[in-house]
Amino acid sequence: MSAVANPATVAECLRVGTGFSQGDRAWIAEQFATLDARLAGFHADATELEVSVKDREARGQKVTLECWIAGRQKIVTTSAEEDLHAALNDVRDDLRRRLNDAKTRQEPRHNKHLRDVSQPQEQVDPEADALPAADQSRADAETV
Questions:
Q1: Ranges 22-26, 40-44, 61-65, 128-132: which has the least confidence
Q2: Most Cβ neighbours (<10 Å): which of 49, 61, 72, 98?
Q3: Selection from 50, 75, 54 nearest residue 63 by Cα
Q4: In the chain, what is the greatest distance between 2 CA atoms, to the nearest angstrom?
Q5: 37-52 burial by CB neighbour count: b if 16+ within 10 A, else e?
Q6: What crossing angle do the helices spanning 22-31 and 84-106 adopt, rounded to 10°?
Q7: Per-chain mean pLDDT for the chain
């Protein structure tokens, strides 16, 4: 990927949704900081993350992390872990995996570097392509 002028970071792109307060945003962003390296290939103004939790601290809580990147399909990861920190780590790791998978699908299967470097062209010798002149001594021997 080419360098991005304004790379996306979790701190810049993260919104907290249902079940979280703005006070929770700082520690969630800190927990998701390992995503920064993966998000850096995308423009910050074209990337959004939203984390939400349903039934927080209850037995059946569900944490959801949604990621929107311009030009790509929305990625949604969920976790039903009972511990909130474990659930946040689970959705973070799943998002990282899915972003890596999406990147791998878009890259060429072979080394792009080899295709970008121009290969030397063979010098074509016009005389080498010409058919050799017929050997007259052989032609006489065959017809006799």
A1: 128-132
A2: 49
A3: 54
A4: 105
A5: ebbebbebeebbbbbb
A6: 60
A7: 81
Using the structure block, give the residue that is written with the tokens 């780590």: 89
Residue 134's identity, in one-letter code, is A
Q: What is the DSSP string of the chain?
A: ----SSB--HHHHEEE-TT--HHHHHHHHHHTGGGHHHHTTSBGGGEEEEEEEESTTSTT-EEEEEEEETTS--EEEEE--SSHHHHHHHHHHHHHHHHHHHHHHHS-SS-HHHHHSPPPPPPP-HHHHSPPPP-HHHHHHHH-
Nearest 5°: CA angle at 61, between 58 and 65? 145
Cα 4–chain centre separation: 14
| pTM (2 d.p.) | 0.69
